[in-house]
């Protein structure tokens, strides 16, 4: 930025050599947008994409950057974008949350904290619900051993009566949120197993998403799950795929990231389009900032706000 270093991470370097991309780019589709050869599947949907090159941020570190991206402020405490949509537009399916978050399993890199999908100063029922891989996608949803559904319903009814008594003398949005969350959790005990069971998906659809789609918690599996959730009226679905912070070893690291995300990303767009859902579904793909055009360390690149 006008000769100033953007971060101190490359402050001990005597020089900042400019480095061109080791990857080839070519015009794709009728639009002619240039896309890397690392993304052959995304290249195939070039005419369904709008590539925005003017994005920028003042943040130079990941924590403030991703917080700004999700909440509009670098400072923690404000509602996330999904929480605002949930608050303003409400839900379309009473049996599923309106805001779901999934994080690719087994990826290192910068930590992701729950405030990124939090409700901030809005009622807590608007926060995102994180789905995990494994037999129990939503934590603490299953009844304890020995407690059946009828018993759980009776317990919730009595608990609701206590909450409503408290509300009479002490009106509080958080008490109302607590009642709503308990009721949603009860309904989700039936809806979550159905929405996360992909055994009924046709084999040709699974092939579109790639080999990893049958491995819960992978980016491919999460992309398919996102389509299934959107199909059932979940308004905002957010997928996180960590591992883009290549301060060193960028060529190999970026190839890995592209290999994991290219086919599932393109498959999701095609799947939505084939079902007529892309007409009213916006798919946004991006990160909190970019990388410098100069080299850092051993074939790495520093954080950059453009």
From TrEMBL:
Q: Which Pfam families match?
A: DUF1501
Give the protein's recorded name.
Answer: Uncharacterized protein
Q: Which organism is it from?
A: marine metagenome
